[in-house]
Amino acid sequence: MAGALRPVALLMVLATVLLVLDGVVDGVRPGGDAWLNDVYHGLGWTSYLFAVVNLLVALLVARGSERTLLARVGLSGFFLVERPVTAFLLGPKPIESVIIHAATAVVELVILLGALRVWRLGRSFEDEDVSALFSVGAV
Predict the structure, then answer these.
(1) How far apart are CA 27 and CA 31, in angstroms?
(2) Helix, strand, or coil (residue 126)
(3) Alpha carbon distance 39, 36 (integer Å)
């Protein structure tokens, strides 16, 4: 079970890196075009917020929380819509940013499918064993 969860947790870390990279490429950094400006309707900073939330959820999933895994499924669903939409609706973005948004959406789709697979696998065991099975450290 832990073997099935590890790739999902690693992909969550990759998604976090992509979210931070998107903020940097969008110019939401000291000295950047979108730093403390109304570029992207003042929402450019949300990429960093999403990265922090994503990393926290990844840590909780790696600790073996089934509820957090379900929360991550919901978060993946949100990102599958949010990433493509914000790539085009918040204003003109550099092509690198659009590519990062698309790559993040693809990673989120893989996370969603992997998390659902792990959750279904965990549901096939007895309730007492589920917490132990979702632990990344389990053998």
Answers:
(1) 8
(2) coil
(3) 8
Give, as one character, the DSSP assignment of residue 40. Answer: G
Percentage helix, strand, coil for the chain under 3-state DSSP, each rounded to 5: 75, 0, 25
pTM of the model: 0.77
Q: What is the pLDDT of residue 104?
A: 95
To the nearest whole number, what is the mean pLDDT of the chain? 81
Contact 139, 6 (CB under 8 A): no
Pairwise CA distance, residues 82 & 76, whole Å: 10
Q: How many CB atoms lie within 10 A of CB 3?
A: 10
46 and 78 in contact (C-beta within 8 Å)?
no
Has residue 132 got a pLDDT over 60? Answer: no
Residue range 86-101, pLDDT digits in tens: 888 877 788 998 999 9
Residues 106, 86: Cα–Cα separation, whole Å = 15
62 touches 9 (CB < 8 A) = yes
| Residue 94 amino acid letter | P
Does the pLDDT value for residue 137 go beyond 60?
no
